[in-house]
Amino acid sequence: MFGTLIRSLDVPDTATRLRTALEGRYTIERELGAGGMALVYLAHDVRHDRRVALKVLRPELASVIGAERFLAEIKTTANLQHPHILPLFDSGEVGGIVFYVMPYVDGESLRACLEREKQLSIGTALRIAREVSDALTHAHARGIIHRDIKPENIMLQGGHALVADFGIALAVANTGAARLTETGMSLGTPHYMSPEQAMGERTLDARTDIYALGCVVYEMLAGEPPFTGATAQAIVARVLTDEPRPLRELRHTVPPAVDDAVLTALQKLPADRFATAGEFAAALSTDDRVPTRRLAHRVETARRSPRDVVLAVLLVVTAIGALAWGLTHAAARPPVVSAPLIRFHFPAEFARMGSGSAIGMSPDGSQLALVQFASEGLTTRLALRRLDRDEIVVIPGTEGALSPFFSPDGHAVAYAEGPRLKRVGLNGEQPTILTDLGGADIVARGTWAPNGTIFFTSRRGQLFRVSAAGGTAERIAQPPTGRYDAPIWLPGGRILVSSQPTNSEDFELVVLSVETGRVLARLGRGLGVQYVETGGRGYVTFVSPNAALTSMPFDAQKLQRDGPNTAIPGFQAPVRGRSLLAAVSATGTVAYATNDLANKELVLVSTAGESVVLPAGIRAFRGPRFSPDGRRITVDVEPGGDLVGDVWVLDRQPGTFTRLTFEGSSVFPEWTPDGSAVLYSAVGKSGSREIYRVPADRSAAPSLVIRSSSPIFEAVQSSDNTLLYRETADSTGRDIVRVPAQGKPTSFATSPFQEVSPAISPDGRLVLYMSDESGRDEIYVRPMTGAGRVQVSSTGGTEPRWGPGGREAYYWSKDTLFAVSITPSPALAVEARRVVLTGRYSHEPFHSNYDVSPDGKHFVFVRPTDTATRMEVTVLLNWFGHGGQTNAP
User: Fold this and answer.
1) Known catalytic residues?
2) What is the mean pLDDT of residues 840-866?
């Protein structure tokens, strides 16, 4: 399923390599069994003349955790010395194989015992439970949580319990928590996972082990775990929503006190369980005439209303994804190899874009192509991360790249660069142009079909195809209204596209004929990501309107839904319009990025280079603007990302930071010329973005200023009350519209390209704005009234602002802030250009993310703290299958 990166461990080859590498140290005798995390061998410890169990960590776990980090963490468990804990003898790495050594138990696992006996006597079950509790008490007192208590990890020797695999559970957990490589992983077994573990919580305490032990005790007495199901999701759903049946309903000889103790250990909330394993053990020894408290609780919960059940099911949909499991059977029988769901993380830098995709994944799921800002500035570039390696490698020559997607063999990446579709080989080849739309359009996103054809969409919403060897692009289809985006190749030669209606931010999944462009099927709302085929079943993955990454079982022959949708867990990077921070491989590996937007600060920088952090805290700041008198700064705070936030005002003299709006969608504030009010964009009653005005002292409620048939994202006002606003139109993308104080709206800067970030000079005569009409972002200046324009920037530019007096324009080019002298008459001209400063500040693609003070002596910037420039990429392995069986309901 995971291509060359994850593959089944070759047993004979591994044994041979181990025998050779460990010769003179350990003699490998035979294989004992296999599980989701390790292969287990019976070996002879040559130095100490004893039999040992030598466990080999599976390569997918080793590649995620890292050998050195795993071995460093596992040493902690060597200090766990307890009669009911299986100790760690040795560990190491040879020839890329990570191993650890424990005593060989000449007995059987509790799992093998239960498979043979099904149920244990009450006395035996309670003795085992108390011994395991004693072991857990010892470990918990030292801050060590097992996290994977289950019958497979409880060995029986001479009738007594020995808890195994503290080492691997701790190493996996601590590697994630301590961020030794800024990598995390979640592993577990669904029948014994606590609700908080199933929900994906990283911080777990001793009560998680108590819950798991409660499940084990329940199974020893009842013959089955408290919750069962046909799939992992079904089990986790029951863990989160159902109450276990009282043991006495299944086995009337169970003492009431024991029933009560087990049900207490199985409570959903950790606070309702025993605080310590010792308390659980003591409760299991309580006089059996004590009445049970939890039976009454179960009767009450059985009366839940349908509404409660619906809410619980919604909780399950969001929580199932934290599941990560592997069923291990280490008995002396043919090994059972499962494919556990594995979650891990790594940090990466991304270019925050308003459109396109920032992640591409190879079909086999082994590689990621990431869109980053170039180290020297605002230009984007591609970087490659192979999941079996730690480093992220820049792909040379890919400046300006967006929306990468891989060739079917994973050896090349195609990407958009303005009007050009380009290709770069991953073996050191230089990028080449496959096709060029010229000045007519800009490439959006694409998909590379197995037959050597690339299908791609343009920003104007047309669907094209071109040979992967290059040539003239052929237009296949364009909707009668709206636009197509995000093409996905389907079996049978069809294309799945996302159709966006006019003046809407939502998409509809539509299947098209490659030959005719005709619509063959409509699958519902969503922005498509990938088609996955695994376990004999197909899935369409997409981002739903509520920003959930979703898998939909799909019959590619009948072109219809083949089951209920399932939310893929943990996706927290919402998509609106056309931006996307998620990718899925053709084999079902999932990757998505989450951005910690909150780690930013407002900083005041003088023209001499001195900087002062403003007293507004660490927040998700964006678009600061000085008031006309320079005393106040308005800014939007976007804690959730995706244009979800509110407008605030910082008064520099008293240092107060006050919230100005409360709509939750207010962004891009701009002062009115007299400083009495602030204009901003917010979602109105129409459901679309509109421009509102609110008094700076909040003496009145916000009032509507502009409503349009298209969403409006920012507006600026001149001294004569002329308004300029940026809207998103269907046919021409982002345009700037002019509204005189007395008159109707007229086009100011409209083209098939993107015109954004309008800035009006203090005297109201000139306007700066940004456009990508040349194939890259540049700054232009033109009169407020009249024709003609002059290019201000020369090597790319973004985020224009005016200096005092309107005779100097500022803009960013890469990480350098430039100032340019503007001469308005006798003819509009650009003259001297100078460097103002350089630095790493936060930038916005369509809205200036800084301002110049009215006296020209200071700038206000949004500056990331140490970690804010990095996002976290989460990768899920085997979400769509377990041992060849689909996990989707």
Assistant:
1) 148
2) 88
